[in-house]
């Protein structure tokens, strides 16, 4: 089969490799699509090295169809549409025991250390099959839509941390795929107004299309004025930072109302050191939260939201590349072309 193997920074080798053989407790998935994300870009650039294996097939946002199920495996018929939650948690560590498998200390991620979705086939390891990481889709939608359950699941996890209440005014900083998911989730959760800020007019147009009440170009408009206008000068109930620029953290703190919630959803570049006016948190009683990866439950929620059409994904997949052009696909994603890039074998 064809596969895209990470050989080290800057080196993605697309070539023939052995089709994986599965054990009696494993499932072989014929990949229908693998969507590319910022993490793949950072891995390939050598910016993300922790938890990344060498000579591994990249790709952690994948969906496809069951090609073969091991003889001990139940519940996966050949041909069934499936989507994979790529984080394989140990289910035994301190965090797993407390419902925080997303931050499992022994986590292994398909596409980082276990061969992933930038290939024609992917072997789902026994522990992932057993833990239910491989979800059977209720609708056989194009795989590139189902694959988006992974990034959406991370946003669902974030939403659990920052919460949106009925009639909230929410500010989403960033209108890449992640920002657009937070926008849609906030609306689903009952937000009255969602303000989206982004430099790119193309992305702001996407945000408006997906229901943003207001979009702001922070390079030419005063975001705090727009926020004041829509909140009677109080500030937003929730601000979600979806751009990994540390200086935005203090901006977000300053734009939230007293008692508001600020979620640092993005991972921040480099060491991620941000200078913040700590008294904003203190006097305004702000609640600051983070978000890391996703739990199986979040993944299932995300998958159902996509299948039922409550989260719009069709328009978000703007680019499709064949597997032979996986490197070009990652480069296109790095250039922030369109919204989401899919590799379709
Ligand atoms: Zn991702
Ligand atoms: Zn664990």
Any descriptors?
single chain, 345 residues, Quinone Oxidoreductase, Chain A, domain 1, Rossmann fold, 2 domains, seven-stranded mixed sheet, six-stranded parallel sheet, 30% helix, 26% strand, oxidoreductase activity, Alcohol dehydrogenase catalytic domain-containing protein, oxidoreductase, GroES-like_sf, zinc
What does it look like?
The structure is a single chain. With 345 residues, the chain is α/β, with parallel strands linked by helices. It has two domains: 2-148 and 313-344, Quinone Oxidoreductase, Chain A, domain 1 (Alpha-Beta Complex); 155-289, Rossmann fold (3-Layer(aba) Sandwich). The chain is built from twelve helices and 18 strands. The chain has helices at residues 38-45, 94-97, 126-131, 143-146, 149-162, 177-188, 201-209, 223-230, 247-255, 278-284, 296-307, 326-334; strands spanning 2-8, 11-16, 27-35, 56-57, 61-69, 81-84, 87-88, 108-109, 121-124, 134-136, 169-173, 193-197, 214-216, 236-241, 256-264, 287-289, 317-322, 340-344. The strands form four sheets. Strands 3, 5, 6, 9, 10, 17 and 18 form a seven-stranded mixed sheet that branches. Strands 13-12-11-14-15-16 form a six-stranded parallel sheet, with helices on both faces. It has a three-stranded antiparallel sheet with strand order 2-1-4, with no helix packed on it. The chain is globular. Bound molecules: zinc ion (2 copies). One zinc ion (ZN) is lined by residues 37, 39, 60-61, 150-151. Residues 23-129 form the Alcohol dehydrogenase-like N-terminal domain. This is Alcohol dehydrogenase catalytic domain-containing protein. Its cofactor is Zn(2+).
């Amino acid at each position: 089969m064809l596969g895209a193997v990470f050989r080290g920074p800057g080196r993605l080798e697309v070539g023939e490799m052995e089709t994986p053989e599965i054990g009696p407790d494993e499932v072989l998935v014929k990949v229908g699509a693998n969507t590319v994300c910022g993490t793949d870009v950072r891995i390939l650039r050598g910016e993300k090295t922790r938890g990344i294996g060498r000579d591994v097939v990249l790709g952690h946002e994948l969906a496809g169809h069951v090609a073969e199920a091991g003889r001990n495996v139940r519940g996966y018929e050949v041909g069934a549409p499936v989507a994979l939650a790529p984080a394989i948690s140990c289910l035994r560590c301190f965090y797993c025991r407390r419902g925080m498998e997303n931050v499992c200390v022994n986590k292994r991620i398909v596409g980082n250390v276990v061969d992933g979705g930038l290939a024609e086939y992917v072997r789902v390891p026994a522990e992932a099959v057993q833990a239910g990481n491989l979800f059977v889709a209720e609708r056989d939608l194009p795989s590139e839509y189902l694959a988006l359950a992974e990034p959406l699941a991370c946003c669902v996890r974030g939403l659990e941390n920052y919460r949106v209440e009925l009639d909230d005014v929410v500010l989403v900083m960033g209108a890449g795929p992640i920002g657009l998911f937070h926008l849609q989730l906030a609306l689903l959760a009952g937000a009255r107004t969602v303000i989206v800020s982004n430099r790119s007019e193309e992305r702001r147009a996407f945000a408006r299309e997906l229901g943003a009440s207001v979009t702001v170009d922070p390079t030419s408009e005063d975001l705090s004025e727009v926020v004041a206008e829509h909140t009677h000068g109080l500030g937003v109930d929730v601000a979600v930072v979806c751009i990994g620029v540390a200086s935005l953290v203090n901006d977000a703190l300053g734009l939230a109302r007293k008692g508001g919630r600020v979620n640092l959803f993005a991972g921040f570049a480099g060491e991620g050191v941000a200078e913040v006016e700590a008294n904003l948190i203190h006097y305004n009683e702000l609640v600051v939260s983070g978000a890391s990866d996703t739990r199986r439950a979040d993944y299932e929620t995300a998958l159902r939201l996509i299948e039922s059409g409550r989260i719009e994904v069709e328009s978000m997949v703007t680019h499709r590349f064949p597997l032979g052009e996986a490197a070009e696909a990652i480069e296109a994603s790095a250039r922030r072309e369109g919204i989401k890039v899919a590799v379709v074998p």
